[in-house]
Specification:
Belongs to the peptidase M54 family. The protein has ten helices and eight strands. The chain is α/β, with parallel strands linked by helices. The strands form two sheets. The chain has a five-stranded mixed β-sheet, with helices on both faces. It has a three-stranded mixed β-sheet with strand order 3-4-6. It binds zinc ion (2 copies).
Length: 321
């Protein structure tokens, strides 16, 4: 915390507003300090009986089995380091048809979309007894209601469920090259889910991994009761568009870090070391690796995490002073 108040140090910077469309200007919200967070009666915190973060993929996450499996391990490992001390489990993947959700083709972008509220209802039913929360992830775009164009994600804090899509993190999403466009017209709310078979999946690049780790931890942060940060540059800053969400850091400011620490009870330095291990560990899986004969060791694309790695090393050095 001391670091944030020393102008000569540069670990924590202010929030810099770049345009009028930035979140902090376009969505005025009450700030939340530690006291307000801590005394929030509706806030949910993990406890020994409910200490697992469950991740559930909906539909395919990657074009090959190896990519799908490795990507899931990377996300799981990242969440385990970020929410250090909690257990993170991936439930068996489910196809879109299992959720019985409505779907449609977006009339502007021509890509497939699934109904976020229906997915939340499905996840709520599936939530295991020892879950702190259950979070769905998908590469298919989401819509919250017919009149809306799209939504990046949706969560219910009281139910401890959330669903987030990484479809719009594809580098080609808004270009004419985007391959997720559906050529032939499709009926909305049809019960024929075959349209999702072999549907386009974005390539798991370093930037996609970086964006998905960032979104997942920001959104799970909300489930812990952290509101949008208005103190310093921080993962928990609100974001209105992709450019703004790319700008916000992967790290929590000292105030949000203190909130998360009070909910989980980790050692700050051990958490930073775990995050560093995740970036540096090329064997991908930290816990529970089951080597198999057909296991292909895909290198984790961590290039986009380089600056953050340097930052963590500086933090560890300060904490060890
Ligand atoms: Zn948010
Ligand atoms: Zn913050």
């Amino acid at each position: 915390m001391n670091e944030a108040f020393q102008p000569s140090r540069n670990l924590f910077g202010p929030i810099i507003v770049h345009s009028q469309s930035d979140w902090i200007i376009s969505h005025p919200e009450d700030p939340q300090d530690f006291e307000q967070f801590f005394t929030d009666r509706f806030r949910k915190a993990p406890c020994p009986k409910k200490h697992v973060i469950y991740l559930q993929s909906i539909g395919s996450l990657g074009n090959t089995r190896v990519i799908r499996e490795e990507y899931i391990k990377w996300l799981k490992g990242y969440c385990e380091a970020f929410f250090y001390g909690l257990t993170v489990r991936f439930l068996d993947p489910v196809p879109v048809s299992a959720t019985k959700c409505s779907f449609r083709v977006n009339e502007h972008t021509q890509n497939l979309q699934i109904h976020a509220g229906h997915i939340l209802a499905f996840l709520k039913k599936k939530k295991p007894k020892d879950a702190f929360c259950i979070v769905g992830i998908t590469m298919i775009d989401l819509y919250p209601r017919d009149s809306w164009n799209f939504v990046f994600g949706q969560a219910s804090l009281t139910d401890g469920v959330g669903i987030f899509s990484f479809a719009r993190y594809d580098k080609d999403f808004s270009s004419s090259r985007y391959e997720g466009r559906v050529k032939k017209p499709t009926r909305t709310s049809s019960s024929d889910y075959t349209i999702f078979d072999n549907y386009y999946n974005p390539e798991i690049t370093s930037i996609l991994l970086w964006r998905s780790c960032k979104t997942l931890t920001h959104e799970i942060g909300h489930i812990f009761g952290l509101r949008h940060c208005q103190w310093l540059a921080c993962l928990m800053q609100g974001s209105n568009h992709l450019e703004e969400s790319d700008r916000r850091p992967l790290s929590l400011c000292p105030i949000c870090l203190r909130k998360l620490q009070s909910a989980i009870g980790f050692s700050i330095i051990e958490r930073y070391k775990a995050l560093l291990r995740w970036i540096d560990d090329q064997s991908n899986d930290i816990i529970g690796a089951t080597p198999s004969s057909d296991h292909v060791n895909l290198p984790k694309p961590v290039e986009a995490f380089k600056d953050w790695r340097e930052w963590i090393i500086k933090c560890i050095a300060v904490l060890e002073e």
